[in-house]
Design a protein that fits this description.
This protein is mainly beta and 69 residues long. The chain has a domain of 46 residues. It has one helix and three strands. It has a three-stranded mixed beta sheet with strand order 2-1-3, with no helix packed on it. A hairpin with a 5-residue loop joins strand 1 and strand 2. The N and C termini lie far apart (39 Å).
Amino acid sequence: METSCRACAAETAHCHGTLIRHWSGRPECTEDGCESPELTLHAFDIDCVAVSCGCDQPIGSGARWVSSA
C-alpha cells in the first residue's frame, strides 16, 4: 500500500495545506513550511471570510464579521 499522494509520487509542485485568500491579495497557507503559497498548487482553496479573518471590512469601520454558526 502506498502512503504518499499522487503528486508526491510524481514529484510535482504541490502542498497538502489549505490556501487562504485574503482580500488584501496576500495568500496564506495552513501548512508549516509552505514556501510559496502564491505559486504552489493546493488541495483546498478558501476565502479568508471562511476562517473569520475580517480583513474584508473597510478600514476604520470597527466592524467584524461574525459567524452565525
